[in-house]
Amino acid sequence: MLPISTAMSAIVRRTCRTWSPAAPLTRWLTTTPALHQSRETEAQPAAAATKDAPSMPGWTPMSLRVGLITRKKGMTTMFMPDGTRVPATVLYVDSNQVSMHVQRDAPSQDEAPYMALQVAASDARESAVSAPVRGHLSRAGLGPKRVIKEFRVTPDAMLPIGTQLSAAHFVPGQDVDVRAITRGKGFAGVMKRHNFAGGNASHGASLAHRTPGSVGNNQDPGRVWPGKRMPGRMGGHYRTVQNVRVLRIDVKNELIFVKGQVPGPDGGVVFVQDALKSMVKNAYFMYRKGVTPKGELLDPAKGPAQYLPRGLMDLPFPAGTRDLAAQLPDVVEVGP
After folding, report:
1. What is the reported pTM?
2. Of the candidates 9, 104, 98, the residue with the CA atom closest to the CA atom of residue 53
3. Predicted confidence band at 88 (pLDDT cuts at 50, 70, 90)?
4. Average pLDDT over every residue of 2-20
5. Pairing of strands 23-27, 232-234
6. φ and ψ at 231, to 5 degrees?
7. How many H-runs (helices) and E-runs (strands) does the chain carry?
8. Which residues share a beta bridge with 44?
9. Residues 87, 96: contact at Cβ < 8 Å?
């Protein structure tokens, strides 16, 4: 194995693999989480390495990072280091930039104030974007964009307006939540829409093979309850798939490879965020309890690695930007 110099903090698994056009397969080297330094700088004392570097806030269990707006490019097959064949969906990070800060006061003393970042994506012609949207984006110094989405964040994860986000925002091995509009199926029956078994297909069916059967009640209440599973319009609404594993990050082409399926057709818009359940909430409640899932006491000196799952050392914070991506290898993926 040939060592490579890294300019990124230890945000990936110890066993992640990287590719470079001019180098063979190499292992991803980890450094101090708070420093963006090369291998030569790593040998120097920490005080000397950070003497002139500006202090940057780090990820904490209380932090909530911004998400990304991507486009679904299709599905492919990936082979894991143990030889397992898994399906993967390719997501393209399409020109994501911060377009606005959104802040609102808390409605009551028991609630936190609302704070979010508005992200605009997908460059477009001026004629393809309405005048109000063009004016809104021009005030932020941005050109016309097709998609605008608001992501709630914590105060320490705020970013300057105009910041360019990259696929390096996520780390191979972490879980994310993906949200998109599902494919519209039109008006569908109960067997397709709700997976009903259907009626008897042989004796005495009397043209009731695919009907839902009885849907009413007795004289009291004498009506059909709201929400009853019946035929109707299927698809065409937002669906969130939680805890989707990130398998590979292609920094050069701004691609994110995630395990399994993602809602929506090829070319559809997909919103990607840190997994709310398996990462954000788990880290928060672990911090509140003060112990790991194994019952071990948390040590503040160990940093954020003890709050993250599956050997993750840290996360790009407050976000993975284009400047950070320029210092990374072309491709990083999960290793053995």
Report:
1. 0.80
2. 9
3. very high
4. 42
5. unpaired
6. -60, 150
7. 6, 14
8. none
9. no
- Set out the domains of the chain in order of their start, with CATH numbers: 68-185+233-333 (2.40.30.10)
Cβ-contact 104, 150 below 8 angstroms: no
Amino acid at 317: F
Least confident of 3-7, 83-87, 95-99, 176-180: 3-7
pLDDT at 108: 85
Give the Cα separation of 216 and 233 in Å (integer): 21
Tokens 């904490």, residue? 60
The rounded mean pLDDT for the chain is 82
d(CA 51, CA 142): 35
Q: Mind listing the pLDDT tens digit for each residue in 169-217? A: 999 999 999 999 999 999 999 999 999 998 888 777 888 889 998 888 8
d(CA 263, CA 244): 12
Specify the length of the chain in residues: 336
DSSP strands (E only) in 80-144: 85-93, 97-104, 114-123
CB 31 within 8 A of CB 42: yes
Give residue 50's pLDDT band: very low, low, confident or very high (50, 70, 90). Answer: very low
Strand partners, 123: 145
Burial of 100 per CB tally in 10 Å (0-12, 13-18, 19+): middle
Q: What is the model's pLDDT at position 64?
A: 94
Q: What is the dihedral of CA 32, 38, 40, 43, to 10 degrees?
A: 0
Q: Yes or no: say if 121 and 137 are a contact pair by the CB < 8 Å rule.
A: no
Would residue 295 be called left, alpha or beta, if left means φ above 0 and alpha means ψ between -120 and 50 degrees? left
Q: Which amino acid is at 6?
A: T
